[in-house]
Structures are given as structure tokens and as C-alpha cells.
Amino acid sequence: MNKDLLYYIPTGEFGKEGVLSLLKTHPEIRFVSLVGIDLAGNDTDEKVPIELFLKNYDDFFAGTAVQTDGSSVVLMNIATLNDARVDMVADPSVNWYIDYNEDNIYENGRPVGTLRIPCFLLHNGKFIDSRSILKDSCAFVADKLKGLLAGGKKVKGMEDVPFEDIEDIEFTIGTELEFWV
User: Fold this and answer.
1) What is the CATH number of the domain that holds 113?
2) Helix/strand/coil for 89
3) N or C: which end of the chain has fewer CB within 10 A?
4) Do 145 and 161 reside in the same domain of the chain?
5) In the chain, how many domains are there?
6) Residue 133: how many CA atoms within 13 Å on its side-chain side?
7) CA distance 61 to 74
8) Is 3 inside any structural domain?
9) Which helix (H) or strand (E) holds 17?
10) Within a domain: residue 59?
11) Residue 1, domain member (yes or no)
12) Residue 21 host element (H or E)
């Protein structure tokens, strides 16, 4: 790992001005790629020059900066040929990663980087991607669990847990392989 390179931008650590300032100190980061995942796990990404991101930062989160025709994702019964515009809405609630091309060296001697930002896919005002469904599902289950636990009922094996002290429920997701390793 090269200590001069920026490998990720952690969520919540920088505001808009902090992110813009950080990116300006790393001119080797030349592109931004929004990456969305359809319901079948297929991904689509749109790569734009970093200058567009720096100039139109807020538009990336409003879903007005980048669109795709959805040609690399499967949107059966959602998007049709005459209604294929899919807006890509950047997700500020997750870490963003920088992918470097070691075969393409920028003028400062560092490899050219692409900031990869996970995004949601929006079609006709409705989110149609797997990440948005997962996010909504986790929020729904967390709310239901908090409601059940706050109801004062006893849970077998957890009689001594002070449920009123629970502020939030967070989910961790991993593959079966990750759990076995």
C-alpha cells in the first residue's frame, strides 16, 4: 500500500466541503464511478470525470447528475425501451472506495484513480435496486424489533437485558463463506 494514496473516504467523517477539499489534494483521482446493483445482482456503473463531480456535487445525491439506460442491469417489467431512463443516486451513508489503475500513471507519479460510489437506481421516482430494498428491509425490521422489545415483554434467555437502553439496531451482513473463515 502506498501511503501517499487515498484508498477510501469513510462515511460521516467529512462533509461536502471536506470531501471536495480532500479530492482536490489528490489530483491522481481523475474519475468518479457510480455503481448500482439490480435485483438479480447485476451491476451497472457510470464513470464521469472528477471535474463534473466537483462542480455538481449536490446533483449526484439528488439523482440528477448521472443516468443510465439500464442496459447492463435486468429491469424486467420495470424499465422498457421507450421508458428506460434510470437515475443514479449516490449513497452518502456508506464508505466510498478509490480503485487505482497501476498501468496508468498520472503526471504526479501516482496511478490514476477512480472514486467508486455505491448508488441507488431510481426509475420514475421509485427505487428499483437491491441496495434500496435491503436498506428499507433493515430499517423495517429494526423498527419492529425495537417496538417489540420496548413493549415490556420478557424474552427467554434475555431476562436481564435492559431493552429501554437500546438506542438502535444495526445489521451486519456477510456471506456464508465469511462466517466460516
Assistant:
1) 3.10.20.70
2) strand
3) N
4) yes
5) 2
6) 9
7) 23
8) no
9) helix 16-24
10) yes
11) no
12) helix 16-24
In order, the DSSP letters of 112-143 are EEEEEEEEEEEETTEE-SHHHHHHHHHHHHHH
- Cα 84 from Cα 44, distance rounded (Å): 14
pTM for the full predicted model: 0.81
User: Residues 164, 118: one domain?
Assistant: no
Question: In the 8-state DSSP scheme, what is residue 23?
Answer: H
Residues 6+ apart with CB under 8 A from 8: 95, 96, 97, 98
Give the whole-angstrom CA distance, residue 80 versus residue 146: 40
- Boundary of a domain, candidates 103, 129, 155: 129
| Gap between the Cα atoms of 178 and 181, Å rounded | 5
Whether residues 85 and 148 fall in one domain:
no
**From first to last of its 181 residues, what are the pLDDT tens digits of the chain?**
888 999 999 998 888 999 999 999 999 999 999 999 888 888 888 999 999 999 999 998 888 888 877 666 666 666 666 777 888 999 999 999 999 999 999 999 999 999 999 999 988 899 989 899 999 999 999 988 888 787 777 778 877 878 777 788 888 876 666 555 5
Grid cell at residue 98: 478509490
Residue span of the structural domain in which 147 resides = 133-180
Q: Are residues 35 and 114 located together in one domain of the fold?
A: yes
Q: How far is CA 31 from CA 5, 7, 100, 117, in A?
A: 15, 14, 10, 11
Q: Both 172 and 98 in a single domain?
A: no
User: Cell 464513470 sits at which residue?
Assistant: 47
Nearest to 47 by CA among 72, 22, 25, 26: 72
